[in-house]
Each structure stands twice: as C-alpha cells, then as structure tokens.
Design brief:
Layout: H1 22-51, H2 54-67, H3 76-88, E1 92-97, E2 122-127, H4 134-141, E3 149-152, H5 154-157, H6 160-169, E4 171-174, H7 177-185, E5 190-192, H8 196-201, E6 209-211, H9 218-226, E7 229-236, H10 249-256, E8 279-284, H11 298-324, E9 333-335
Parallel strand pairs: 1-8, 2-5, 2-7, 3-4, 3-5, 6-9
Antiparallel strand pairs: 7-8
Helix pairs in contact: 1-2, 1-3, 1-6, 2-6, 3-4, 7-9, 9-11
Length: 336
C-alpha cells in the first residue's frame, strides 16, 4: 500500500499487519451464520406453526422475548471480543476518519463539499454493503463509534438472534422512516448501508466496484428535513471477501424488494462463510453539510442526492490507490 492520503486523521485508526489464526475467521463465520439464520427465522417460524412444531415455536418466541428485553444492552467485553475477531480475520484492517468526520467533531475543518452547516447529528452512509457488511461492522465496533446508532433492515432487526448480537456490540435500530426520523429529531448520530440487499446482490468478488445508489435518495430527504450532515463511507476490499454469483439482476433485485437477500456467498475454500483473508480499508469521508429544509421539494432532494453521489465518488477516487495499489489504475466506481 502507498502512504495515507493527505488530510486523513490517523489518530483514530486501527491496523493489523499480518494474517491471524483461522479461529478469528471462524468467529466471523459464526456471525455470518447468525446473519443467514436470522434472515430465515421468520420462514422457520411460519413453517413450525403450519406443521405443529410447537417446541420450535416456543423456542423462537422465547428468544424473541429475550432479544427485546430492555436490560439487554451493549457489553464492552462483547464489543472488544468481536472487534478482536474481526480485526484478525483479514490480512489487514484499517479504519480512517477524514477531518471533521469523527462523532462529536464539528466538521468546520472539512475541505469537502459543503453548503449551509447542518444540525448536530451526522449520518454515516456506508458503501458497499458487501455480502455480510464487513466494513459496516468494522465501523460499528470502532471505539469512536460507540455512541452511534447503527440502523439495518427491519426484517433483520425483527430476527431475534441478530438483534441479540447487535445489542451486545452496539446500538441497533431499524432502518425505517419512523426509527430514523426519531433519532434525527434527537440530534443523534446514526449509520446505515443505503444500498441494502440490492447492493449486496451486486457484490462481484473481484473486478467491478459497485454501489446501488441511484434510487436511494430517501435518507437524504430525512437529513434535509432534520438538518443532519452526511459522511459517505467506503469499505475498500469489501468486494474481495466473498465470491458471489453474477447476473439475473432484475429478478434478484425484485426479490430484494421483498426483503430476500439474493446472495450466493463463498469465502474460504473449506469454510465458505468465513471471509477471505484480504485487506480491508474503511474510510469515513468528511461531512457533506446539507441545509436544514423542513419540507424539501423533489428538486432539493435531487440536488442533495447529486451532491452525495459526487462526494462518494470523490472519496473513492481519493483512496483507491492507497487501497489497491497498481490495481487501482483505470478502476472507477459503478453507480447502479
């Protein structure tokens, strides 16, 4: 890798310089298995009801009740353990914050695009989703982000195992309009993956860098309404962690619209759910300050969306050489 790009705040970075034992990767694989089983749990519950498997119904109901107990909250020990595992499952890991992007910073020193300064909160928009959101997870587990609420699919949020894991390591909430706007009204910092399952489906395993963003403007409308700044985040190396079947995009994206994750992941040869030991560089871009517009027009939302896409593309261009070295030559971001 080449040196860090100018203006990147390294004081909040973490780095693991060599490949760690497979057991750390197996922990990550276990998290991925929980992700997949959580996605399947509503179907399992319905099948159990239809077939009269009352022991399965009772077990799922009990786990669901446990997941929603108010006493279940973030455990520093659990967060540290999973951070240890996720940092050592890859060839190297680095989380970088550009000026003004860390939680609690004003962003006044940012040299990125800006308009009228927004409210106190920030929204961290992470791309690409990847198969299992490894870059997003790295951000969630970073100590600087411990007070940031991370929002994900309501479908997964309502899956008990995934919710329990989320509560143990961070501050989870639904990526729904009601949940996000409630957080924004309080001036909270929050994070999400705007590309969702559609972006996960596009994961190539090698070659193309793809983001599903052309039809994702809703989160920017909410930011305009509540005066939040937006920090684009890019996880370089996310695409390399898993192979994924390509093609049939229209059908797969149609299924994504119903909350079905149409992914076909394959990581390490003997352990397909364990990510490949590749480098991962997560860069949090300087904030894009949006004007506070309580009732934005479609034209204002479209303008903010255009600014966001430009900021995300510029972030990718600034750091692609650091992340990929000579392979970055001619590499550009595909916008879907």
């Amino acid at each position: 890798m080449v040196g860090a790009a100018s203006g990147v705040t390294d004081s909040l970075s973490t780095h693991v310089s060599d490949l760690q034992p497979l057991r750390a990767g197996l922990v990550v694989g276990l998290v991925c298995a929980i992700w997949l089983s959580s996605a399947a749990s509503p179907l399992v519950f319905v099948l159990a009801l239809l077939h009269g498997w009352m022991s399965v119904v009772v077990a799922l109901a009990a786990v669901t009740a446990l997941a929603h107990l108010p006493l279940l909250r973030r455990s520093p020990a659990a967060a540290s353990f999973f951070r240890w595992a996720f940092n050592r499952a890859f060839a190297s890991v680095s989380v970088r914050f550009e000026p003004g992007s860390a939680p609690g910073s004003s962003g006044a020193e940012s040299s990125g695009p800006a308009s009228t300064p927004g409210g106190p909160g920030k929204l961290y928009a992470v791309h690409p989703h990847g198969i299992f959101c490894m870059g997003f997870i790295q951000l969630v587990l970073h100590p600087a982000m411990r007070e940031v609420t991370f929002c994900f699919s309501s479908y997964l949020y309502n899956s008990p195992l995934f919710l329990i894991l989320g509560k143990l390591v961070g501050r989870p909430d639904k990526a729904s309009k009601a949940s996000m706007t409630a957080l924004m009204r309080r001036g909270a910092d929050l994070s999400l993956t705007p590309g969702g399952f559609e972006e996960a489906t596009l994961t190539s395993g090698a070659g193309a860098e793809r983001v599903y963003v052309k039809k994702r403007a809703g989160f920017l409308k909410y930011c305009l309404e509540h005066g939040l700044s937006v920090c684009p985040v890019y996880a370089f190396g996310e695409k390399q962690l898993y192979a994924n079947a390509q093609g049939c995009w229209a059908l797969r994206h149609w299924l994504n619209g119903f909350g079905v994750p149409t992914i076909f992941p394959f990581g390490r040869r003997c352990f397909p759910l364990v990510p490949r030991p590749k480098p991962l560089l997560v860069v949090v871009g300087s904030p894009l300050h949006l004007a506070h517009v309580p009732h934005p027009t479609p034209a204002q939302v479209a303008a903010a969306h255009g600014e966001y896409i430009a900021a995300l593309t510029a972030l990718f261009e600034r750091h692609k050489a650091e992340a990929y070295g000579e392979e970055a030559s001619g590499l550009s971001l595909e916008l879907w």
